[in-house]
From TrEMBL:
Species assigned in the record: Arabidopsis arenosa
Protein name, per record: FAD/NAD(P)-binding oxidoreductase family protein
Domain Pyridine nucleotide-disulphide oxidoreductase N-terminal span(s) in chain numbering: 226-283
Start and end residues of each FAD-dependent protein C-terminal domain: 420-633
A Pfam family hit: Pyr_redox
Record-linked InterPro entries: DHPH_N, FAD-binding_protein, FAD-depend_C, FAD/NAD-bd_sf
Superkingdom classification of source: Eukaryota
Length: 707
């Protein structure tokens, strides 16, 4: 066993093996008393409910869309929100053109005989399932591209119907022929290189900026910039891929292990309660998302060129094609592991040096510029194996649990700013119950992920007011929402320290477990940190640690998770045994979770759960079990950087990216941020000459985290 592995016993961090009381006095902490809550559920206004200004804006957009169409008989018409009843659709796994879908298409283009439309003229771009209670019947909802040239070649009688088509915002869009869809990231970079070679003589040399004064010249010719990418999660992998394709000398440094070894370390944790502090559910190849649900849902644009480039790259490395079409794409841990192995092999074939089990302990800085990193074997807690590695730039792509990295940056006076995040509890229900709540009679069609309809999930959000003030004052708002909902999943341990306890959810690709779980979390900010007298840029980290330690003590040690029936949480009472069964494999213990958080956070959770019951009748159930504690929903800090160059505003040569830097949340947005940073770093070293936006589209707003 390595020095970093710990067989965690219940008494290892308690002052007394018999005293499991929380070692703090609630009377000492003076929390602001929660006043009457107002909870609003905002719905998107449609039809006559729109404001006059919204209607005017919609009319203007409609006129602009019509004016943009130069030739209706060329290019592609994109048809959205095509509904096909469940009974007329082959099911969730069918992504082709069915009879029911042809009927929906015929209705939109007003073609009289659906069966005469050639399937070859249509391609499914998006497919999702809509079982909302307001609908008369559940349906699959499609977005389809109609290729005009193919349609007219195979069915000339469709000419007049296409000629009469008009764009309708959100329903019908004309896509000109010249508006191309991006390929995978490797193809995109190769296209850039081809264009560069055509527009330049190829005689330019790469400018190497190395604070050490050693420019790594290779004879008299061109030289490669040496770039370190720290972190093997989505942002690090995609940054490394871009830079390697552009010809940089890339070294990828990951403190955890490759997925094969990481899987064994996680097995030792789950089966024998042995925590490897450097290779676990958070650290290792692929990042924290590898042993999670593998969600690929994002709010930065499902059909944007940037997201498509990421998804197509994942498909290239082994992801199923259906992630390009599914409305809620996900991979699952079992699909992510081989995908990451393929990704690694490609990077190595492209010349990337990968160092697993290697922790970055410090930055090497000269004249206010990063010139390298100090690393050590991650199993060596004494750092006796440390060595200095020189680089021209460092892409910092660590995850949100790299607390020692944040502390190192703070000691180096790198600018850090505290960032809002969310904390709460993870609730678990029987999956069959969620299926029945969401689907009613259709619940029998789920069949543990193998049926016609997808395993039921949910997404709920409420806005709670801490004070009796108008909610238009943003300072009084507190959002409470479900996070990382894992249908057919299990609750897992994401602690990286044996004295702290935090959890998350994960699912395999089929989502066939008999449980459904989701975090119910409340946003917290600097004012919450102040209550605990936590100050400075690292206050959010200490806030997380505080409640992770309390949860560990409530559980009694040995990674046992404190739990409480949701009905008892609402009534402030300890749950009696026997408890409902839990998917968490390291053991659970009945505890007063209503005493874990400050009163205002507990009350926000309680009020929100009551409102969730109105949206999902049956959500409050004797079978529903709350688990504590969920704290690592996103990074508690942000590392300020330039919007254009992605370089740190306080330290030259450092490029903070991804979720750990505070610029992403989830696999896809982190990968997109890594991709943009790769282009930015390549451009700074003259490996790429051109506009980044012209190649991969517009970047997500700097500092704006979307999940």
């Amino acid at each position: 066993m390595s020095l970093s592995q710990t067989n965690f016993l219940s008494s290892s961090f308690l002052s007394s093996s018999h005293d499991l009381r929380i070692p703090y006095s609630r009377a000492v902490l003076s929390y602001p008393r929660l006043q009457t809550h107002r909870i609003l559920c905002a719905a998107k206004r449609t039809g006559k409910r729109r404001y006059p200004s919204e209607r005017r804006k919609l009319r203007t957009e409609q006129k602009e869309a019509v004016a943009k169409v130069k030739n209706k008989l060329e290019g592609v018409w994109r048809l959205s929100k095509l509904g096909v009843p469940v009974g007329d659709d082959p099911g969730k796994d069918f992504l082709g053109i069915s009879e029911g879908l042809l009927q929906a298409i015929a209705k939109v283009i007003e073609f009289p005989v659906a069966s005469m439309l050639p399937e070859e003229a249509f391609s499914v771009i998006r497919k999702s399932f809509d079982a909302r209670k307001i609908l008369k019947e559940a349906k699959f909802v499609y977005t389809v591209d109609l290729d005009v040239k193919t349609l007219l070649e195979l069915e000339p009688r469709a000419h007049d119907f296409i000629f009469r088509l008009e764009p309708k915002i959100g329903l019908i869009e004309h896509v000109p022929t010249e508006k191309s869809v991006s390929g995978d990231l490797i193809s995109v970079v190769n296209d850039c290189k081809r264009i560069n070679s055509e527009t330049s003589s190829g005689e330019y040399e790469h400018q190497i900026i190395n604070g050490s004064g050693d420019p790594h010249q290779h004879g008299g010719g061109r030289s490669k910039p040496k770039i370190a990418v720290v972190g093997g999660g989505p942002s690090g992998l995609f940054a490394a891929l871009v830079l390697a394709e552009f010809g940089a000398d890339v070294t990828l440094i990951e403190r955890g292990q490759a997925v094969e070894e990481r899987g064994r370390d996680i097995g030792a944790l789950v089966v024998r309660k042995i925590l490897d502090m450097e290779s676990n559910f958070c650290f290792g190849e692929g990042g924290a998302g590898t042993w999670s649900d593998g969600k690929l849902v994002t709010r930065i644009g499902k059909n944007s060129a940037t997201v498509l480039a990421v998804l197509k790259t994942l498909v290239r490395f082994g992801a199923p094609d259906n992630i390009l079409v599914n409305g809620k794409p996900h991979l699952g841990t079992d699909k992510l592991v081989p995908l990451l192995r393929n990704f690694r092999h490609y990077l190595q074939s492209a010349g990337v040096t990968i160092k697993f089990g290697t922790r970055v302990d410090d930055l090497l800085v000269q004249d206010s510029r990063v010139v390298g990193v100090r690393v050590s074997d991650s199993t060596d807690q004494l750092q006796s194996t440390s060595q200095n590695l020189k680089f021209d730039a460092v892409v910092l792509a660590v995850g949100h649990s790299a607390r020692d990295t944040y502390e190192m940056l703070h000691s180096r006076n790198v600018e850090l700013t505290p960032k809002d995040f969310a904390v709460g509890l993870r609730i678990e229900h029987p999956q069959e119950l969620i299926n029945n709540i969401q689907y009613s009679d259709l619940a029998s069609e789920v069949l543990k992920g193998r049926g016609k309809v997808p395993v039921a999930d949910y997404k709920v959000v409420q806005y709670v007011n801490d004070k009796a003030e108008d909610l238009s004052q943003s300072s009084s708002k507190r959002s409470c929402y479900s996070f990382c909902m894992c249908p057919g999943g299990q609750v897992v341990l994401t602690s990286t320290n044996p004295t702290e306890l935090c959890i998350n959810g994960m699912s395999f690709s089929r989502r066939s477990s008999k449980w459904a779980n989701a975090a119910l979390v409340v946003t917290v900010s600097a004012k919450d940190f102040d209550v605990l007298n936590l100050k400075g840029p690292l206050a959010g980290i200490e806030f997380q640690r505080e409640f992770e330690r309390r949860a560990a003590i409530m559980g009694g040690g040995d990674f046992t998770v404190p739990v409480q029936r949701v009905t008892d949480f609402l009534q402030n009472k300890l749950s009696e045994t026997p408890l409902p069964p839990s998917s968490y494999r390291l053991g659970v213990k009945s505890a007063n979770l209503h005493e874990l958080f400050p009163t205002h956070i507990t009350e926000s959770l309680r009020q929100s759960i009551s409102m969730f019951e109105k949206e999902l009748p049956g959500f409050i159930s004797e079978e529903a079990l709350l688990h504590g504690v969920e704290t690592r929903t996103s990074s508690p800090v942000r590392i300020p950087r330039s919007n254009e160059t992605y370089e740190s505003t306080s330290l030259k040569g450092l490029y903070p990216v991804g979720e750990g830097a505070g610029y992403a949340g989830g696999i896809v947005s982190a990968a997109v941020d890594g991709m943009f940073s790769g282009f930015a770093v390549a451009k700074s070293f003259d490996l790429f000459d051109g506009s980044i936006e012209s190649v991969i589209g517009k970047a997500q707003g700097a500092g704006l985290v979307k999940y």
